[in-house]
Amino acid sequence: MRHWIYAASGVLLAMQAQADMTVKVGQVSPLSGPIAHLGKDNEAGALLAIEDANAKKLKIAGQIIKFELISEDDASDPKTATIVAQKLVDQKVAGVVGHLNSGTSIPASKIYNEAGIPQISPSATNPKYTLQGFKTTFRVVANDVQQGGAMGTFAVDHLKGKKIAIIDDRSAYGQGLADQVDKKVKALKGQVIAREYGTDKTTDWMAILTSVKARMPDVVVYGGMDATAGPLLQQMRRLGIKSALIVGDGACSPEMIKLSGSGMDQNVYCTVAGLPRDQMPKGAAFFKRFKQRFGMDVQVYAPYEYDAMTALISAMVEANSADPKVYLPTLAKIRLQGVTGMLQFTPEGDIKNGAVTVNQFSSNNWKPVSVIK
């Protein structure tokens, strides 16, 4: 690319200009529907990573790179997820961060794999996601084997629960998490007295909870998102079920506290497939910058979304190419200190040394009480 300037003598001189190169990267999360607050949290994390990368004027093949975020809404729907995944493939994105849910990440991963486009989920925890044999599939959080195991262990060993009721929303995430809790509780010689389920849109849990109450559980465990967990807890307390409730990372949010209202008490716990905020290596600075930039607090996954996007970009720069075929092997072997911790992947694409934090509701917030690695 050339542009022309006039010298003082009036002679026309040709100057070689360094051309910027635009690289499109995708982000997919539910930007509409009952968990849109989580999706927008993810989107903001990706955008902050893009803005930070562009401010550094990174170079690939001698050219300054401008990264462009293409954000899509999958509405937490598996079919929509495949549609927007193909849309991103058609737009020739260099990589994708997403999706938020396991139930959307898994079907979309097939499309990205066929196109050879790397996909990093900041939040999909179902083990199946990385067990499909795809070289393009990664995640930056612990999976449900780790998280479900931690929930089961906490229920039996810490809370001394002998009778455990397990409820889920029948999504790939919720049921997958519940299945792992079930396995761990039984392995620890606890008794699973109920396995009940609704859907990812259920808000009336009264019939299920009435049945659960009759069995007198010590602990209730729920696999699902905050939009359904909040009503579940409210109705538990309304029915006089005083048992401890443990929910997974999909409900470990400020929104869960808001939705649960007076149902929240110190007998409510949640897990997050990662470290507590105060133990994240760069957590304090990130949470402060995030609030300043977007005028809102982090819900759950924004720092993981930020790290996932940063990993994609770092792999491109290190490989000196935005071509997925070229930088994919670099991404698979990356070692990067992120906001949430060290980013390294197993051969399957799981995060190495994934941690699970157990939080307890206290003083109108989630407070970490245990970290399990």
UniProtKB/TrEMBL annotation:
Belongs to the leucine-binding protein family. Keywords: Signal. The lineage of its organism: Bacteria, Pseudomonadati, Pseudomonadota, Betaproteobacteria, Neisseriales. Residues 1-19 form the signal peptide. This is Branched-chain amino acid ABC transporter substrate-binding protein. Residues 22-355 form the Leucine-binding protein domain. It comes from the Bacteria. Pfam families: Peripla_BP_6 (PF13458).
